[in-house]
Amino acid sequence: MIDKLKELIAEAEAFTAQSKDEVEQFRIKYLGSKGLLKEYFAEFKNVANEQKKEFGQTINQLKKTAEDKVNALKEALENQEEDNGLYGDLSRPGEPIALGARHPISIVKNQIIDIFSRIGFNVSEGPEIEDDWHNFTALNLPEYHPARDMQDTFFVQTNPDILLRTHTSSVQVRYMEENKPPIRTISPGRVYRNEAISARSHCFFHQVEGLYIDKDVSFADLKQTLQYFTTEMFGKSKIRLRPSYFPFTEPSAEVDVYWGLETETDYKMTKGTGWLEIMGCGMVDPNVLDNCGIDSKEYSGFAFGMGIDRIALLLHQISDIRLLSENDVRFLEQFKSAL
Ligand code: PHE
């Protein structure tokens, strides 16, 4: 009988369970009110005296083994449940984390900021909802000035003094009001114009405008700065400045960069001329400096402004400006490899 008990001890020790049910059945089999232990304890009185001691020890050992086993298995199963709840199967291989992509507008904007920051320009920002003074009047565009029509404006209905900025020149006005020359700043941001939406134009787009004010700043400084920019940005150093008109600069110019006519795309992009218009620029009108509290007799400066969206379309061969604001992931995912 002692041998039988030893067998049962070995069996109990080897027992494993996958569920609480199996543990419970094991408990009932060994420790239950009609279980094995009960049976063997009942046998105790029939055991020969000289074997009583060993029998007693063995049966106690079986009891302890069974109890320990039940407790250990219960605990293990509970822990496992917790783990599953919190972390799932910890030994599973990890899931790949998909890499995001920057928006093409951000990519181009960051490139422009990077290029100008290397020659000492900082970045300034301002509100998209502007007042008339900062968007127009301070920039030498008084009320009823015909040049206000150059940029179709969204006004805030209840207050004609409040509008969605039509260019980030408004940020330059704010910057001049708050800072003394020398000033070297670029102002990236979103702007709004009441234009029909098509593949080529949208009612909102993005600009980077630049402003440089110091003593004795000349048109030559402007040209040199722009040439540095086009070389760094496009790898093209040949530019031309066509006379133009902006109310806030005098003289004013449009900047064309020579793109070349090597490929069919070059032909398409430049309409067969090889030249590509990329921005407007000029020497800051003395009226603007005075409006912003900078003495125009002491200081002069230049300003320029370009559209980020158009440059993004160009550089990434995107055929429709509307793609930039539709948030279609199939489009956005294509920029994973860009900066
Ligand atoms: N503000 C002009 C525009 O939005 C661009 C510009 C900026 C032109 C500075 C000249 C100088 O069209």
Automatic annotation (TrEMBL):
Catalytic activity as recorded in UniProt: tRNA(Phe) + L-phenylalanine + ATP = L-phenylalanyl-tRNA(Phe) + AMP + diphosphate + H(+)
UniProt xrefs under InterPro entries: aa-tRNA-synth_II, aa-tRNA-synth_II/BPL/LPL, Phe-tRNA-synth_IIc_asu, Phe-tRNA_ligase_II_N, Phe_tRNA_ligase_alpha1_bac, Phenylalanyl-tRNA_Synthase, tRNA-bd_arm
Keyword Magnesium among UniProt keywords: yes
Cofactor names: Mg(2+)
GO molecular function term, any single one: ligase activity
Protein residues bound to Mg(2+): E250
Key words, A-Z: Aminoacyl-tRNA synthetase, ATP-binding, Cytoplasm, Ligase, Magnesium, Metal-binding, Nucleotide-binding, Protein biosynthesis
EC number: 6.1.1.20
UniProt entry tagged with the keyword Oxidoreductase: no
Quaternary structure and interacting proteins, as annotated: Tetramer of two alpha and two beta subunits.
Entry protein name: Phenylalanine--tRNA ligase alpha subunit
Native source species: Winogradskyella haliclonae
Lineage of source species: Bacteria, Pseudomonadati, Bacteroidota, Flavobacteriia, Flavobacteriales
